[in-house]
Amino acid sequence: MNPVDLRIGPALVVPVASAPFTGYVEVTAGVITHLGPVPTEAAATTTAASAGRIIIPGLVNTHCHTSQQLGRGLGDDVDLLTWLHDRIWPYELALTEADAELSALVCAIEQIRNGVTLIADPGGRHVDGMARGLATAGIRALLGRSAMDSGEGRPPGDRESTDEVLAPQDELVVRWHGKDRMRFSYTLRTIFNCSDELITETVDRARRLGTVAQMHVAEIPEENEHCRATRGTTTVRHLDRLGVLGPDLLAVHAVWVDDEEIALLADRGAPVSHNAASNLKILGTPRIADMLDAGVLVGLGTDGAPSNNRMSIIDEMWLAAIVQKGVRRDPTVLPAEAVLRMATADGARALGLADVAGTLEFGTAADLVVIDPLTANFATAADPVSALVTALKTENVESVLCDGEWLLLDRRITRVDESAVLAEAADRAAAVRRRAGLTIS
Ligand SMILES: [Zn+2]
Fold this sequence. Notes:
By secondary structure, the chain is an alpha/beta fold. Helix content is 39%, strand content 19%. It folds into 2 domains: 4-57 and 360-413, Urease, subunit C, domain 1, CATH 2.30.40.10; 59-350, TIM Barrel (Alpha-Beta Barrel). It has helices spanning 80-94, 97-113, 127-137, 162-176, 196-209, 221-231, 235-241, 259-268, 276-283, 288-294, 305-308, 313-328, 336-342, 345-350, 384-390, 418-436; strands spanning 4-13, 21-28, 31-36, 44-48, 54-57, 59-61, 116-120, 140-143, 182-184, 187-188, 213-217, 249-253, 272-274, 298-300, 368-371, 397-402, 405-409, 412-413.
């Protein structure tokens, strides 16, 4: 019998796709080769003792602006258009490719520390830099280039035609799709800044590549008003009329949608990325419980550092659940099991990567998180699976395996000198703020 690369256990294993059990996970060549109450008889090249630990699938962050990591704190206490026009666009314009690389690396480190092994980046300007940062960190990612070809408010020097937006994305596919742990994903910023031609061409390209297109959808009431004025109907209805609403268009936020639009999202199989904290901070509160009742596929996302400040899917799980219970005044909505699935299996499905990530099963990628429950916030929990949503905190994440490689081991980032990276990032963030004229602090 050939040896296995890694045997972890005994631990409480929560595969999400099947019932929790106490036992072992075995990994060979980056793939799960055994799950069960007893280990196989094969020798193990390495083992990880995990008595008392909980093993869950790597978490999935369906909306994570890696190039905004150096802009944390730039968007506090302002409305969306001030946030975008006066803070984020100047920040993004001041960012160099080297800054974007460091920003993505620091963002990925924070994600890994929060148990995330797969992120969807809705796009920045310096995709090569972002890709290098993510490759250094080792995390799985959908890469994107921020795509805008129209609309008012764009800063000078940042205006591109439809072709100028699409052609570089086609080149990026060649360069990065399938490289390291990355895939490319075509992106659309918002209906304010995307022509119908760009929208249809983008989704067409995503379909041909077999990837999802990501788009910010129905973020604020003014967006629907703008869409009505320019296209005659609301964003979701317009996207459906264009024939692009479907499983390959990830609708990010979807805060301002009515019953008919929720039914459209469900009928067309269009997934939604729910970003509870960023929504509450800037946009409003989406009807996620209603969407789940209607059969909409929902994953969770953090958004970017200036939109959320906390970039933790662990926090998002807790917040998503508790906010929807309050909104519906019904404590039974978004039960813990469903929320854990949103942060894992459903998130992976929303990104079109259910075959790669989101569950622990024989033959799936070895992306998993080892949770240490022996902390004051968790140790006494009556139901450890429920506590993964209600009590879990970032500090419970002990180790993170991605593609069979430890990216976090015993709370230490394995690939880079984390302290040195963070010190450089703090200096670089201050330099970007100075160049952008953003002297907030
Ligand atoms: Zn976003």
